[in-house]
Structure formats: structure tokens, C-alpha cells
TrEMBL record:
<dbReference type="Pfam" id="PF01037">
    <property type="entry name" value="AsnC_trans_reg"/>
</dbReference>
<protein>
    <submittedName>
        <fullName>Lrp/AsnC ligand binding domain-containing protein</fullName>
    </submittedName>
</protein>
<dbReference type="InterPro" id="IPR011008">
    <property type="entry name" value="Dimeric_a/b-barrel"/>
</dbReference>
<dbReference type="InterPro" id="IPR019887">
    <property type="entry name" value="Tscrpt_reg_AsnC/Lrp_C"/>
</dbReference>
<feature type="domain" description="Transcription regulator AsnC/Lrp ligand binding">
    <location>
        <begin position="6"/>
        <end position="76"/>
    </location>
</feature>
Amino acid sequence: MLTAIVLIDAEPSRIPEVAQEVANIAGVSEVFSVTGKVDLVAIVRVHEHDELAGVVSDAVSKIEGVRHTETLIAFRAYSNKDLEQAFALGLDD
């Protein structure tokens, strides 16, 4: 499974509509409106890089109101449980 974080800069007047359209794209698991340098963050989960290209280049980038995207590909996922296990290695309870 390939996970990517897509940062989306949108026209202010279309942020809610862009968010909903992005959320409806196959492969997009979540869309967040955020503060900061971008307006929306989409989490994309697909099986192959070609699918990611389809989601970002062929779908998200063509939505009316999307001005710019930046895609970050995740290498490894960490959760609180993973971090606790990593720091507990070699320690006796």
C-alpha cells in the first residue's frame, strides 16, 4: 500500500467544494481543511505509483479551484503503539 499526503492550494471561494470533490475521488481516504500555507490536505492510499499519478495528476489537479498541489510520499508510518514498542526494546518491566 502506498500512502501519500497531498497538499492542496485552492481558490478561497471554492475551498468547501474542492474538499468535497477531492473526497469523492477513489483512493482518497480523508481530506482536511487546515491552517497554514495550504488550504487542504488529502490522504491518498493506493496500491501502485501509477494509481497515485491518476489520483493527483488526472483528478485532483483538474478540479476547478485547485491552484497548486504538492505530493509527499510516505516511507514509513509510526503510531503511538509503534513508538512505545521501539523505545521499550531491551528494557525489562
